[in-house]
């Protein structure tokens, strides 16, 4: 099978999984203005931004020959759960004969997940599948951990862009990994590259840590969120995202009969603000913010697709959360109409706000 | 000679240039229509300032803000280049220290800034549309055939109340036409518009956040007494308008420049009043180095490259610093 998938953050891990199962991976190109234009043209106007960009990615992938689309489902009332079906119909109406395999959470629909796995597994033995899954999960975990190191270092790099270039290099390196031994080697090499990046010394009191939370697609895919991580890094902030692929796998796929996943603990932290799952990642968003507050972060950037229902709910809870915790939150809605300059002004002002309140606290202590 | 600090705010509608002394007293202020030509309007502002100041004061720092801040900052040699939200709040904190909420309505954007004990705690900017800004009023004034300067006074003369849909400029216009047919006077319609703008502003930017007095209203639209009255009616509180309401952004930039230089102890990078006469050409090109196809802006001063930006990988930005 020629298999494709949405482009969300690094596609390295999905690509590896598909390849190792003996399929041909057709990665869509990194979303560009062309992808967005294409997606907007073929999507309903009221659909949310991720649906449109992913539509564009699929169109580019089927153009390259993809026959099967691999995607995740959604839970709760969020529209994203329906997008697999919608994408399929739109593609079929356009005359593309493609199949869409939707993975829902294993805890929600065990049977369909097993059926999907059987389809992808093909003639591979269950043992081989287990080994592949283990390797890919480890890889996702490694890659995320390396990315976090870069998200910290970028704030202090001496030569602008060196962390981003290292990140590109690491992704290319991991593309060549197929065994556990190679994985360990790649990790060592990547660590060496990261250690080589020259940074400036900044006193602990001047360091600023920002958490990016919100809807998973706009948080994870830099080309649709104005490269928020890089932008913040270049302005001297350490960054963490609410969503990492390895966390998603851990929460949705890894069987965990006795303990709670990291995500699960985070969800409980958000319960003070949203008690039930209202769809999308609204509850996670609140949980992530509380967690970042507990970790001593300085501020939160909350990203959402324009008109995203779950995140609109979390946005309206922000004033209360800000009052409770004193944590500054900046909400930015993104879609194809987003103006860069306007949002950059907001981000800059937001960082000024954080810096001045931080300095003010310091001068009061001393 | 006494020291002065300059602040330049390049906005979509007006370009403001101010000079303050060390006690934050305003020595000169220029309010110039930008007319789509930010470079020319700044040059005019600096020439006017030169007549007021030259020979009497030395310029010890310059700050730039507004949507054209980066370009202008390079042209004049600004010490501080700051976003307009921080600049506006800084000015208010100095001139109206007890303020808790700032309403700032400019030509094409509007902001709300929340303060607590002289620190910004939160802010919001209009996101989707201009139906809460000066351009909206400008356009409606033109349609009704009255000069924008008298718009506010007309509103105050209204005898009856009329509700105008203010969510969108186009729909507001259709609503105005039908209300005119119902027999409402120009004054009443203008008053309805002012109330619609305020309602829209508070819904859009306030978003369920608690607004705490004292309120300060600044930006070009603060000149409109009708809007001020509508704010006071909506909030049931006095809304203060600072003396230099129309140039607060520029004042903030000047104060920020002063503070930054006092802190660092460095000398100003100001190019001198001659900055108004240097040949300054911004150009842009599409970089074909990768698939990002960044639009890179290049600024040349007297034929020499002074700055480049807009590239995502910083290839061009770094190339200037090296030389």
From TrEMBL, chain A:
Q: Which GO terms describe its molecular function?
A: kinase activity
Query: What is the protein name stated in its UniProt record?
Result: Predicted nucleotide-binding protein, sugar kinase/HSP70/actin superfamily
- Taxonomic source organism: Geosporobacter subterraneus DSM 17957
Q: Which InterPro entries match?
A: Dehydratase_Activator_Redct, FldB/FldC_alpha/beta
Q: Which UniProt keywords apply?
A: Kinase, Transferase
UniProtKB/TrEMBL annotation, chain B:
Q: Which UniProt keywords apply?
A: Iron, Iron-sulfur, Metal-binding
Describe the location of the ATPase BadF/BadG/BcrA/BcrD type domain by residue ranges: 6-257
Which SUPFAM superfamilies has this protein been placed in? Actin-like ATPase domain
**Single GO MF annotation:** iron-sulfur cluster binding
Listed CDD domains:
ASKHA_NBD_O66634-like_rpt2 (cd24035)
Cofactor(s) for this UniProt protein: [4Fe-4S] cluster
Looking up NCBIfam families in the UniProt record yields: CoA_E_activ
Concerning PANTHER family, the annotation shows: ACTIVATOR OF 2-HYDROXYACYL-COA-HYDRATASE, BIFUNCTIONAL PROTEIN [INCLUDES 2-HYDROXYACYL-COA DEHYDRATASE (N-TER) AND ITS ACTIVATOR DOMAIN (C_TERM)-RELATED
This chain belongs to the protein called: CoA-substrate-specific enzyme activase, putative
């Amino acid at each position: 099978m020629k298999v494709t998938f949405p482009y969300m953050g690094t596609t390295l891990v999905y690509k590896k999984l598909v390849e190792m199962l003996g399929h041909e991976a057709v990665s869509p190109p990194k979303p560009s203005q062309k992808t967005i234009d294409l997606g907007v043209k073929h999507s309903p106007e009221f659909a949310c931004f991720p649906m449109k960009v992913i539509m564009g990615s699929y169109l580019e992938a089927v153009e390259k020959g993809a026959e099967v689309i691999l995607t995740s489902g959604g839970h709760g009332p969020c529209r994203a759960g329906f997008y697999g079906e919608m994408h399929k119909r739109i593609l079929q109406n356009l005359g593309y004969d493609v199949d869409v395999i939707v993975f829902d959470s294993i805890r929600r629909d065990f049977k369909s997940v097993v059926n999907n796995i059987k389809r992808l597994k093909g003639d591979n033995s269950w043992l081989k599948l287990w080994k592949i899954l283990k390797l890919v999960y480890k890889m996702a975990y490694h890659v995320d951990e390396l990315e976090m190191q870069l998200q910290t270092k970028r704030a202090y790099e001496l030569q602008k862009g060196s962390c981003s270039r290292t990140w590109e290099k690491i992704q290319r390196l991991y593309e060549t990994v197929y065994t556990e031994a190679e994985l360990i080697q790649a990790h060592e090499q990547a660590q060496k590259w990261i250690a080589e990046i020259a940074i400036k010394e900044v006193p602990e009191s001047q360091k600023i840590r920002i958490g990016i939370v919100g809807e998973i697609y706009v948080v994870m895919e830099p080309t649709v969120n104005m490269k928020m991580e890089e932008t913040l890094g270049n302005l001297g902030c350490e960054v963490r995202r609410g969503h990492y692929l390895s966390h998603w796998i851990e929460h949705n796929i890894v069987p965990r009969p006795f303990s709670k996943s990291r995500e699960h603990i985070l969800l409980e932290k958000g319960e003070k603000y949203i008690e039930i799952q209202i769809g999308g990642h609204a509850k996670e968003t609140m949980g992530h913010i509380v967690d970042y507050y507990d970790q001593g972060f300085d501020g939160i950037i909350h990203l959402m697709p324009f008109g995203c229902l779950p995140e609109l709910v979390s946005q309206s809870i922000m004033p209360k959360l800000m009052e409770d915790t004193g944590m500054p939150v900046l909400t930015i809605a993104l879609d194809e109409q987003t103006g860069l300059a306007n949002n950059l002004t907001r981000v800059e002002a937001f960082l000024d706000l954080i810096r001045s309140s931080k300095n003010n606290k310091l001068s009061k202590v001393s | 000679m006494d020291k002065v600090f300059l602040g330049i705010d390049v906005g979509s509608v007006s370009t403001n240039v101010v000079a303050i002394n060390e006690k934050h007293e305003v020595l000169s202020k220029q309010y110039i229509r930008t007319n789509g030509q930010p470079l020319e309007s700044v040059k005019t502002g600096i020439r006017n300032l030169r007549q007021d100041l030259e020979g009497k004061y030395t310029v010890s720092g310059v700050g730039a803000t507004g949507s054209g801040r980066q370009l202008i900052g390079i042209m004049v040699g600004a010490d501080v280049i700051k976003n307009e939200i921080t600049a506006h709040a800084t000015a208010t904190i100095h001139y109206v220290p007890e303020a808790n909420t700032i309403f700032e309505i400019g030509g094409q954007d509007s902001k709300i800034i929340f303060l607590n004990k002289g620190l910004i705690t939160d802010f919001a900017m209009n996101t989707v549309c201009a139906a809460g800004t000066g351009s909206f009023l400008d356009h409606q004034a033109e349609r009704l055939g009255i000069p924008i300067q008298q718009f506010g006074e007309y509103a105050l003369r209204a005898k009856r109340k009329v509700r105008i849909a203010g969510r969108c400029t186009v729909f507001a216009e259709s609503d105005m036409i039908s209300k005119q047919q119902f027999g409402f006077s120009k004054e009443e319609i203008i008053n309805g518009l002012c109330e619609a703008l305020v309602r829209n502003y508070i819904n859009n930017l306030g978003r369920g956040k608690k607004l705490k007095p004292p309120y300060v209203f600044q930006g070009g639209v603060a000149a409109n007494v009708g809007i001020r009255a509508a704010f006071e009616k909506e909030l049931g509180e006095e809304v203060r308008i600072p003396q230099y309401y129309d140039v607060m952004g520029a004042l903030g930039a000047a104060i920020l420049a002063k503070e930054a230089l006092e802190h660092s102890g460095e000398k100003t990078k100001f190019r001198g009043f001659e900055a108004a006469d240097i040949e300054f050409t911004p150009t842009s090109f599409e970089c074909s180095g990768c698939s990002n196809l960044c639009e890179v802006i290049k600024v040349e001063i007297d034929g020499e490259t002074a700055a480049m930006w807009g590239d995502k990988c910083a290839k061009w930005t770094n190339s200037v610093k090296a030389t």
